[in-house]
Write a structure and sequence with these properties.
Xyl_isomerase-like_sf, Sugar phosphate isomerase/epimerase, TAT_signal_bac_arc, two-stranded antiparallel ribbon, TIM Barrel, single chain, 278 residues
Amino acid sequence: MISRRHFLKQTTVAGSGAILVPNLSFNLYKKPEYGVQLYTFRDELAKDAKQTLKTIADLGIKKIESARSTKGLYYGLSPEGMKKECEALGMKLVSGHVALDDDFESTMEQAVRSGQEYVICSSLPSKGQTVDNYKSVADAFNKAGESCKKLGLKFGYHNHEYEFESHDGQILYDVLMDNTDPELVYMELDLGWVVVSGFDPMDYFKKYPGRFPLWHLKDMDFKEKESTEFGNGDLNIKKIMESQKASGVKHIFIEQEEYTSTPVESMRHNMKFLKKLS
């Protein structure tokens, strides 16, 4: 008998059906230059940001995406300091997770000083799992996108699981997609949460081609709804990687919130896993 995990590994089945991928080899695509979402190293960064950045660089990471912390957007470093540290280590600060709140003007100003390209809203700025709320959020996103564009930045949104709930017969994430301007709002698709929610990323790549320039790549334990090391969860990472062209992805950030050992050991495992795919 085929186990549930083995079956998911082979087909990456979600509630709506199997994930569809092109009949193309992973090797036909340009090898990605993987990045990491720094929330993966949140505790280490809080203790010693500079040393942690060096540790990340030593793992072969070339791109990073920051996340808000108790020490600010850059873990106690100034925007210029963060840029300087990354450049010295051969890394690029591409993106940052932020809040769309009353301090957003300061957030944008700091992002410009850091040299990053994307400013990504990390969670829904207002509560309410209704179509009307998501339309209101979409309006706020379009305005934020306009503000960012004027400063040479790109505004985006990172999903979780709840955006794929439905209200009045509509998938709320689709409401967000349909009411945001593709020229102003760029989507960072968290692949793990999409599939855990019972949906197929390829369906979104087909419906909204080129709308997902950023990914969060994470393996997930479907039962526990927790992230885990690549190959230890229920995602077929190889097949997902084959859908790069369809999604229009430019930056792939590895993210892992839970670990069997330490963040460093988990990331070392993940990098080795990805290397074997190429």
